[in-house]
Model the fold of this input.
Amino acid sequence: MLLNVSYSNSDITRKIDAEVGKPFTLKERFTMGGIGSPKLEITETSVEIRNLLILDNNADCCNIEMRPKGIIVGFRSLLESYALVIPYYKLIIYKGDFAIYSIYRDNYFIKVKSDTKAIQKFFKKILDYKADNAPTNIEDL
Done:
């Protein structure tokens, strides 16, 4: 779900919290070693997101926030802030070419450059948290 989160709106906040859960508490953030990604350079996106990013001439970059039931990919275009809300059960992450991670949700995708160890470590943290908190599959029983 792609949302404009520029302005404080209780309906949008309620939608986001229902989809990916409320933010982690401060204690949980410390024990996890942080829940936010470093600045990520966008290399390629789906059409809907690309149409938003080409409106201005700034460098295309985003960040990721972890939530208990998913992630939020945030980016800016013109003076507006947008969020791609992805619950873990719809999240697909691919490690593609040399230093590119692809983040997918349904028909949306964002490819980001992962040229530092900090970025690679953060994606590993997301995948580990997703695996640890996923419901038990029927095949595992």
User: Anything to note?
Assistant: The CA atoms of residues 62 and 75 lie 5 Å apart. The chain has a mean pLDDT of 90. The radius of gyration is 15 Å.
